[in-house]
Automatic annotation (TrEMBL):
Superkingdom of this protein's organism: Bacteria
Transmembrane region(s): none
N-terminal signal peptide: none
Origin species: Streptomyces fimbriatus
Protein name, as recorded: Helix-turn-helix domain-containing protein
Domain Helix-turn-helix: 5-54
Xref: InterPro entries: DNA-bd_dom_put_sf, HTH_17, SinI_DNA-bd
């Protein structure tokens, strides 16, 4: 299946941020992007990879390992 190419505005909307954040990711080369002339597009798969790479997993239930509070 072909990858969908998203605009900076679409990426910002999906991430719940302003357009400045995806533009900064592009400027810092922290996300894969495609330039078509002066237009910049981000493949949907690249956005998913970026999200997966930056997802922090919980470490578990810490209360049980700390014991009882006084």
């Amino acid at each position: 299946m072909a990858d969908r190419y998203l605009t900076v505005a679409q990426v910002a909307e999906l991430l719940g941020t302003t357009e400045r954040f995806p533009r900064r990711l592009i400027a810092e080369r922290r996300i894969v992007f495609v330039k078509v002339g002066r237009h910049v597009r981000i493949p949907e798969s690249a956005l998913n990879d970026f999200i997966d790479a930056n997802t922090v997993q919980p470490i578990g239930d810490r209360r049980s390992s700390l014991g009882r509070a006084a």
